[in-house]
Amino acid sequence: MTDRELILQRIRSAVANAPEPPEIARDYAERHHHGEPAELVELLAENLTGYRARVHRADDAGLPALVARLLAEHGDTSVAVPADLPAEWLSALTIDVRPDAPLSAVELDRTSAVITGCALAVAETGTIVLDAGPGQGRRALTLVPDHHVCVVRVPGQVYPSLPLAVPELDLRRPLTWISGPSATSDIELDRVEGVHGPRTLDVILLG
Description:
Layout: H1 3-14, H2 37-50, E1 54-58, H3 63-74, E2 78-81, E3 96-99, H4 105-109, E4 113-116, E5 120-122, E6 127-130, H5 139-143, E7 147-153, E8 158-159, H6 162-165, E9 176-178, E10 183-185, E11 191-193, E12 200-206
């Protein structure tokens, strides 16, 4: 018996005679904003900016040049990308592009940026969700490099609220929830960015 099986066996034994949990009330408001899709995109942009993410807009034709400019302005010399990221997104890059094969932890640490898509975004909370689906790569890919460029297709990937977004996700997948650049603060409330993930988050609203 493995350690995992032993732990699960003990948990099952401990709760074997526990009463059934009470029914959870689901009478809360599912959303607080009822605007048109364009208004939800504006709300997402506002909340992302409130979290200190940098928000940009592009269409398909302008995306490659914008991606190249953001990496250049940040001073990036290398960028990691999921193996299935659309090749046209990278067509204007002149720096070292490293497809994740996967890259080792050391190689990721030496890579200054990462470009991904996302699963969806939540307008009311300014949250982007990655689920390791197409164009997103594994979780470590977006947590190690210092600069994350994330592309959100709008309005199709924008949901008004968490209660409406969660049913669209497969909760068995490795979900990464991003609300701005990685940040924490100590007991004196001194904010430090880049501790648990990218120090800089650029979000491109593609539509």
